[in-house]
Each structure stands twice: as structure tokens, then as C-alpha cells.
Amino acid sequence: MIPLAIPNLSGNEGRYLQDCVETNFVSTVGPFVTRFEEDVAKAAGAKYGVATCSGTAGLHLALTALGVARGDLVILPSFTFIASANAIAHCGAAPWLFDISKESWTLDVELLEKQLHREVERVAGRCVHKRSGRRVAAIMPVYTLGQPADMDGIIGLADEYQLPVVADAAAALGCRYKGMNVGQLADLTVFSFNGNKTITSGGGGMVVGDHEELLRLARHLSTTARVGSDYDHDRVGFNYRLTNLQAAVGCAQIERLNEFVNTKRRLDAQYREAFKGCKGIEFFPAPDWAKSACWFTGIAVVEQTLPAVSEICQRLRTMGIGARKFWKPVHLQSPFKAMPQTSMSVSNDIWRRILTLPCSTHLCAEEQSQVVASVLKVLEH
Ligand SMILES: *Cc1c(COP(=O)(O)O)cnc(C)c1O
User: Fold this and answer.
1) How confident is the model at residue 307, as a pLDDT?
2) Would the CB of 54 count as within 6 Å of ligand 1?
3) Which terminal Cβ of the chain has fewer Cβ within 10 Å, N or C?
4) Which is the closest atom of ligand 1 to the Cα of 196?
5) Measured from the CB, is residue 84 less than 6 Å from ligand 1?
């Protein structure tokens, strides 16, 4: 079986883990945690990083640090992994779900502008959603498949409405937006280091940003809001820290970030080349303002001409190819069906047609050719 996306642990991972055992630093305090925070912040072009035990925890922490609380709304594209919406719900808030743009599969900026204009008013310095009376507390763009959202437009509107921006960049470390690094765009940017991301720490996440106070608060909240060493705590905090063991793996991984991202981009380009001109096959969007980190790569099948994607996946699996469907949008998920939402024509169309293809960083040329041949066979080219 050629897997969809598995970790590549052929660097210093084992050595650094052994070091944790030998020095007895296996828990949330340890040199690798600090080093990983510095390395990720630097790689993202941000000043500070706070490591967390997952990307979801990082999103929850970032939202909490920005004051998102019970009853609030947070603007979120519906086409995302459910963890983005869960993090909002963990704050007692609700996602206000938006469609994505066809050109980027990220938050539709024109729609955002229209909806804010129509549905939001500023009351006593707060942004209020007129129909529900709820406060709109933040915007959370998602960097889909490793590709940044159109941040100039989003940040412009965030400034106009005085809303903080938390980017769900879970799988987007390594991407660029108009030449800017991924951590230089939103107020807070959150990564995941889950096993299927480009860089993994087994499980883990990170909040990065330039705002010292905000990052200090995030760190404080992530460690049970402890004050001093005598079991004093000044808020309801979380136990969200990454362990030194996980950070050890993360440190070894991030040494190879450029290599991994370059490999992912090459695999993506090779798939595009191999399927170029094939009837019924479209590609993931590549707007000129974005340089994707190409977390996942694959194709979008044209529905009318081909079998359904789930059937294609099944057939590919019998041929030893680990292809998969991709995110089912949040507005179609039971816990979030009743949330305020825009029309969803793009999200409703796209998610049914995406086929992600094997893109592990150690995928060899023969394996990729085998994937291409199998896909073409299933699609009857
Ligand atoms: C992976 C992912 C997450 C969740 O990260 P975990 O580390 O699994 O909690 C959130 N959002 C997006 C877009 C993701 O891809």
C-alpha cells in the first residue's frame, strides 16, 4: 500500500528522543520545548511561539487569549477541518460560517465584506451581529491545504471592524503570501504538528505571533495560569503544554522543513504535469498571491464525467493507492448545522470532488508513477 501521508522520521528524531530519556526531561519542561518554540517562530517569521499539545488546543488557547468567550461569534470558513470549529465551540462561542472563494478555496473576502456590511453594526465599541445580537469577536481564516488565505483583504476588514485575526495555519508552515512569511499575517497564527502534517511532533501545536503580551498570556493560560510555584493560579487555565519528548521529535523535524516543503511542492508539480490536459481532472487552485506549502496534493474530479470520489478512492485502494476524500464542510456536520451561515455554493461543490493523493516526503518516483497510472486507469484515460 502506498500511504497518503506518513511521517518521515529519518533525521535526528531517535537521537533527540534518547537524549530526553538520558537527561530525564520527558515532560512539559525541557530544553527541546524551548528550542522548538524558537525554531518554529523563526521559521514562521514571528517573534514568539507557545507550544501546545495539539493544533486544536493552540486554536482554543489563541481564541481565549484574544478574549473570545461564551456567546460570541467567530467568523470561520466552512471548508475546514472540524477542529477549527471545535476550538471556537470550546470557548462557548459559535462559528459564523462563510463560503470560500472558487479561486483559492479560502475565506471569500468579497462575501466577508458584504456580510459584515449588511449584518454587523458597531455598538459601544463592539461588533454586533444584528440578527442574533451576539458579539462578533474574531476572524479565523484557514490556510487550506497549506495555502494562505487572501490576507490583505481580510486584514483590511479586520482593521475596519476592529476584529482580531487568528489564522488556522495548521498545515501551512512553509507557505508564503505575497512574499511574506506565514507568521507575519494574522495577530496570532496556529500550527499543528499532528502525524499527517508536513512537520510532526507526534502530536502537538504552536501559537506564534509578534505581540509579546498576548503570547505571554497564551503561555500563562497553557500552564494552568500558575502564579509562582506555590499552587497559586489567577484564572481558569489549561494543561495544554507540549512535552519535551514531543518537542524533541519536532526539533528534528523542523531541521528539515525546507527540504520537506520543497519535496511536497515538487510532488504537487509532478502530479499537475502528469494529469495536464486529462479530461475530467482539475487541480487545486494556485492563486498568484500565494505560494502554498503543498501539505496535501491531489486533484478535483469533474463530477459529471466521472464516478463519485468515494468510489474512485475505493478502487484506488484495491490497487494499493492510499487516496482519500478531503474535509466535509463544517455546516454539514451535526454539531454545527444550525450555526449562522452564508450560502455555500462553492463549499458544497468542492468537497465532493477532491481526491487527495499520496504525498509523503519519501514517496519515490516509481511510486508516484504508479499512483498516476492507477488514477488514469480508474478514470479510464
Ligand atoms: C490538522 C488540523 C487541525 C487540528 O490540529 P490537531 O493538531 O490535530 O489538533 C486544525 N485545523 C486544520 C485546518 C488542520 O488541518
Assistant:
1) 78
2) yes
3) N
4) 1
5) yes
Cα(281) to centroid(ligand 1), Å: 27
pTM of the model: 0.98
Q: Which three cell numbers stand for residue 135?
A: 458579539
Closest ligand 1 atom, residue 83 Cα: 10
Burial status of residue 167 (CB atoms within 10 A of its CB: 0-12, 13-18, 19 or more): buried
307 is written with which cell numbers? 464516478
Give average pLDDT by consecutive 10-residue segment, the chain, 381 residues: 96 98 95 98 98 98 98 98 98 98 98 98 94 97 97 98 98 98 98 97 98 98 95 97 98 98 98 94 96 97 81 96 96 98 97 96 97 94 69
Q: Which atom of ligand 1 is closest in space to residue 144's alpha carbon?
A: 13
CB 48 within 8 A of CB 41: yes
Ligand 1 center to 123 CA (angstroms): 34
